[in-house]
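Single-chain item
Fold in token form
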Amino acid sequence: MALLLLRIAAAVTVGGFCYYAIQSSLNRLAVFALAVATFLLFLGLGTRIVALLCAVIASGVALTAGLTVGDWRGAIVAIEVLNLIAIGLLGAGAYSVDAHLFGRRVIRLDG
């Protein structure tokens, strides 16, 4: 359930960043790719690849937009990039399309 919440929060934040990027008249192709990746992230389809792709695109768009770490929007994007990297490393979780297509993986540390 925690991975589902993290995935939804990341998708909503990246979706908001897409809206900001459209208002800033940035590269439309990058914004469209980020919007499609956000939708896939929300569904949990191809989560590892999509999350890492979102992290790369979001950081690139943030640098293009001139967001600095001193700016609060730049700090939010930096934190979201870290969240997306964590999702990319952890996977989608049980409540995702990936889990239904490929099965659940359980890692046990007892033993």
